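Inverse folding, one chain.
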């Protein structure tokens, strides 16, 4: 299987999200555009042939911090290292842009994502209580710059 990675579009995210059963709510094109408007951002897409199978999207929140906002891999393409590759490509881009930290939020209901983050050096730094352990968000941060 030949996987390729490239910068993608909001339409790519919408299409991939439509095939992610775990997502309770789908981000609309308007919501994504509003979140990214006026910000430096990176939207990476993984493809197998002509099929878009995963993405990772994030944006600048300050001169030192980049927020990894959303990402997903279609269920039929999981377990092939696509999510890991997207995370590593994002980290490389963030480092090259001079950011010092990447922050990200995830939930207990996404154990694969929690494992991926912890295994790549992300550290828990907070918690957003949303009334239930499955809906609450765990906040992670990772130091990217070597000189801090």
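Residues assigned per position:
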């Amino acid at each position: 299987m030949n996987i390729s990675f490239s910068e993608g579009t909001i339409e790519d995210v919408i299409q991939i999200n439509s095939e992610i059963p775990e997502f309770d709510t789908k981000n609309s094109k308007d919501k994504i555009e509003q979140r990214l408007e006026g910000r430096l951002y990176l939207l990476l897409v993984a493809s197998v042939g002509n099929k878009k199978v995963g993405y990772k999207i994030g944006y600048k929140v300050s001169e030192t911090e980049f927020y990894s906002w959303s990402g997903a891999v279609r269920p039929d393409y999981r377990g092939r290292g696509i999510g890991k590759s997207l995370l590593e490509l994002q980290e490389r881009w963030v480092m090259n842009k001079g950011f010092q930290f990447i922050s990200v939020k995830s939930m207990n209901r996404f154990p694969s994502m929690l494992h991926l983050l912890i295994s790549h050096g992300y550290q828990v730094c907070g918690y957003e209580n949303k009334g239930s352990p499955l809906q609450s968000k765990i906040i992670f941060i990772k130091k990217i710059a070597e000189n801090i």
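The longest helix spans residues 82-96. The mean pLDDT is 93.
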